[in-house]
Amino acid sequence: MTDIKIDWHQRAKTLKIDGRAFINGKRVNAVGGQTFECFSPIDSRKLTDVTSCQAADIDLAVLAARTAFNDRCWAGLSPRERKQTMIRFADLILENKEELALLETLDMGKPITASLNGDVNSAANTLRWFGEAIDKVYDEIAPTADNTLAMITREPIGVVGAIVPWNYPILMACWKIAPALVTGNSVVLKPSEKSPLTALRLGDLALEAGIPAGVLNVVPGFGAEAGTPLAMHMDVDCIAFTGSTGVGKKIQIMAGQSNLKRAWCELGGKSPNIVFADCKDLDKAATASAGSVFYNQGESCNAPSRLLVERSIKDEFVKKLLSHLPEYHPGDPLDADTTMGALVDCGQMQNVLKYISSGKAQGAKLLAGGEQTRSETGGFYVSPTVFDHVTNDMTIASEEIFGPVLSIITFDTEEEAIRIANDTEYGLAAAVWTQDISRAHMVARRLRAGTVHVNSYDEDDITVPFGGYKQSGNGRDKSLHALEKYTELKTTWIKLT
Length: 497
Description:
Elements: H1 8-14, E1 21-23, E2 26-28, E3 35-39, E4 46-51, H2 55-71, H3 79-95, H4 97-108, H5 112-133, E5 140-141, E6 148-156, E7 159-163, H6 169-182, E8 186-190, H7 197-209, E9 216-218, H8 223-232, E10 238-242, H9 245-257, E11 262-266, E12 272-275, H10 282-294, E13 306-310, H11 314-322, H12 346-361, E14 365-368, E15 372-373, E16 381-382, E17 385-388, H13 395-398, E18 405-411, H14 414-422, E19 429-433, H15 437-446, E20 451-454, E21 487-495
Parallel strand pairs: 7-8, 7-10, 8-9, 10-11, 12-13, 12-19, 13-18, 17-18, 19-20
Antiparallel strand pairs: 1-2, 3-4, 5-6, 6-21, 14-17, 15-16
């Protein structure tokens, strides 16, 4: 738990925030002087002015990244040397974790305990894990004739453009930059304009850790003004994106229209959470179901927002689930005891409320929540919301809401559950609750999702890949497989005689 003696409100009053971009090892203003105002969703207070990067600023960042890559000041180091620097980078995140957690909470609205004990720790662990891994990854020698040597090697792809979302700002940034950096690439990181502050501090800490100037650049700004020039840039070799499916499709088009850069997109989800009648521990399933869908205010791409429950246990299970809702009543994000905070901005709150109105209009039964709360604070809060009598063709069951809204769908047979679960354009995550080991394996195999949890939800770590099927995209973050995205595979064929 967080040290409850910390007065986070007082810390917030004295926190110094630098909103300038980080290019070629320095904090800089936009070439044209453009800025945008950064407000906190907690209470709408203004936090700072942030550099609004434009195409000219993207050009400078890419040039810095390319120059550093060509100079081999980072790419030319041994894996062991890059490892040591990445571990120092991770250490610096932990040394500054209270500042980073406060920035994250003020900027994005999540509870301070989640920022401190979850996101910041996980970000540091990501950098450390990839740093530790890189000098343990081997290339290959092909099985050829005695007079031939064929080497299969992975080389850094060059300049990586990373565009990350606002829901887990520091963690998503580290999921991208860690494997990209350890493999020797240079990176231009564009955080969301809704939550740029921790990404900007990452630039400072990377330089302090010993990563050379130009190897990591951070360019805050809006999608059309900064994201598009980065995705279209002819000197960017790879674009790694996490965000909505709609924007991911545009990223793919821009990659093709420019230089056919590699485009890795980890996108949205509408994940099914299937509870069978033979589930051994309904209390555990209810606790996990509530915790996973309402965690981070429901602003998680893998949130289990479709709860599929077998009819014979439906009433009992829903009662257990609803008993957990008071635990997620929105509170002050700077209070260490708060478990659900503010949505990221007014626009997102209004979007969530629009979906709730849609659910009512289409005939779903509202069991709990469904309204804005804490409006007197000036912040953007929505109570945990549960709909019953939902059918899979309703808007709340088919579209990604990105808020604390759960849809309950009833099924009668295993086949029906699988059909409903797969009846979505997404394929990011899923879960199966059953004590039948055969059923667990067979249903997991048939679910079209990148991650399938059995008798749990959201329990994984950095050792396994994260990404989805279908319109959840083609990106895979985490695990050694992430290294493949940021490297080129080269064959060197040598005739010995």
